[in-house]
## 1
Amino acid sequence: MREASIPSVRRLPGDLLLVNRPVSAIKPHHHHSFMVPFSDKEHQSTDWRGIHSRICMLVVPLRTPVAVLGSEEERAHRETQTRRRQVHLLELTKTEAHKKLYEGEYHLAIPAALQALRFSMQVYGPNSEKLVPAYLLLGESSIGLNQLSQAEDYLSLAKWALMKKSAGKKLQQQQQQQQQQTHPPRHQQSDTGEGGEALVGTGESEKEEDEVLALLNRNFGLLYLKKGKTDDAVRCFALDIYHLSIAKNDPEDLSVTGGYFHLGTVLNTLPNRAVDCHALFDRVAEIWRTALMRPTTSLQLDEAQQAEGIQILTAISTCITTTPAALFAAAKAQHALALLLSRSSSEPKSRAKAAAEKALEMDPGAGVMDPRLTEVANWEVTVT
């Protein structure tokens, strides 16, 4: 794939990102009341295919001026509706960026990630740690395009935002301790209020923190892998697995398999670690196969999760090796891939059928264990 050019990043107070382009080169493009600057037609096309075809009409209400201010209740209702639209667009742009990343279309992930950053700033402010997921999307996109210096800039912004949050929490804890020493409570109070509700901190916030730390370590692992720093990459992928396992309260959750896969990929490049690599690949394939063999209603995957699963399982099923452990893992992965493709509304049925046929060829007994696999292999597909 041709390396795409990404505008360089410039830091401003509050961690605001600007695009470094000559002023004379920026030409505004107007579409449905949404002003977007483009340096040339190629950038315009990339931006449209990357995200604006999905969100163009959705941003119209946000850009339409209000003719009458209205009453206080009407203004409050309008602000609530605006925030809901911004949050919806934020989730949509993040999902689309993830999807493009897993499909290997890194140049198309950049526009979606930039829009995710923009909506994150609108919803949470320019100094919030909630901007970290968007920074990580931009970092991973840059890694995919082999623009490592820029990727490191984005990941450093993410790390800095988390460090500021951590420092703020420590300062708050110190102030609380000093206040307690100055004004000790008359009676020792427990950490829970009436009804058992926590007074300080929530498990949900800790879960989100672990999820973000997992993604940060995964991205740094990918960066170190590109730089040839395998020891650092192994450490980061191990931390990715650790934090995400805690966040999901399950080391075999589907979201954790990305960490296992990347760790296995690194180990496969090291001498005498092929056995460990194949064991990790087998675990990934087994987790996906087990989840996909459950009833369809019990597993809901969004487009990004489906794209990630297809990427991982395709890589494992096509791993070129002749060892029994690797072949067994590849057969499991092919089985899971066929089931995943059969559930996807964006993939042609012919691809799912071909994957199922190959899975039965690799492991004829899989059809007995899972009749659904045989059913997909027997699909009638019209060739156009």
## 2
Amino acid sequence: MLVYEIDAIQTHSITTNLKKSMQELWEVATISLSNYKGARYVVYHHYHDPGIGDFTLSLATESLVTDTPLAMPKQTFRKFSTKTSITNLWSQIHQLEQSGELRRAFTYDFEKYLPNGQIELYVSVC
């Protein structure tokens, strides 16, 4: 799958500033995407020490809004969706991990924000 990266940050999975960092990225991206009507992506990739270490968080689109492609290799995903809270969805994923019902691959995970308000979350699995 190919998306186009707007901006990215290196962050840590247990950083208390993760939410703030994401908000800052969205604010900058919103300005450059003011006329963009398609799906928007948050991509989690380049994991170090999966689940506890650093990773890259990128904001992206499906359309060529920038000239920075971000190619995700073909892999198996488990799809989750919501129209309410992405935070609750991630909590559900962490519970599934802890119970052993979900085995994440920690390659590329992404949130897809659709224009109709639906949020799809794709988690790479083993």
